[in-house]
Specification:
The structure is a single chain. The chain is built from three helices and four strands; from the N terminus they run H-E-H-H-E-E-E. It has a domain at about 70-130. By secondary structure, it is an alpha+beta fold. It has a four-stranded antiparallel beta sheet, with no helix packed on it.
């Protein structure tokens, strides 16, 4: 039985080692390279859309307000008068013993000042309205137009190596010769 076991182990060893040994013996050598002569070169074109920006201008009539000085005196005077009136009107309302009365007077004085200033300004602007003039202004913007353009996207290359003609498509033109892998 030991002889039978020895045969089985020997067969298993040979089965494991033989493929590794066979591969080692028949492994391809390092790749070799040579040079082939380019015999024809043709560009490959593709139609692409290309943007082109243009500046477009036109005249437009616009109304401009005349810059003018407006005195703040009427608004200030109106605010003072309105504040005094608001203060006086608030005196007749509320109980003087309460603290809330003071806040009501302040609020009434402030409201009177705001209303008086606004009324005086409005009277001034209605008496002397703003002045306008018209003028032509050039208005410009950018517009994009698209057009088709033929662009080279690749190169069809014919090359000769050891008497035979081969064809390849390349991204760049290769020059007079190309490097090829030789088996």
């Amino acid at each position: 039985m030991t002889s039978h076991l020895q045969k089985v182990v020997a067969i298993l060893l040979i089965a494991c080692v033989l493929p590794a040994w066979a591969g080692h013996k028949h492994r391809d050598p390092a790749p070799r390279y040579g040079y082939a002569k380019v015999v024809d070169l043709q560009p490959v074109y593709e139609s692409v859309l290309v943007p082109e920006d243009h500046r477009v201008c036109h005249d437009q009539v616009v109304q401009q307000r005349v810059a003018e000085y407006r005195s703040p005196a009427p608004a200030i005077f109106g605010a003072i008068v309105g504040g005094v009136i608001g203060n006086q009107l608030s005196r007749g309302h509320g109980d003087r013993r309460h603290h809330r009365h003071k806040h009501n007077r302040t609020a009434a004085t402030f409201a009177g000042a705001v209303i008086g200033g606004a009324v005086a300004s409005e009277i001034q602007y209605s008496k002397y309205p703003a002045k306008y003039y018209t003028e032509n202004v050039q208005v410009c913007n950018t517009q994009t137009t698209w057009h088709n353009q033929e662009q080279v996207v690749a190169w069809d290359v014919s090359w000769k190596f050891r008497g035979r003609i081969y064809h390849s498509r390349m991204d760049e033109p290769p020059g007079d010769r190309i490097r090829v892998r030789v088996n």
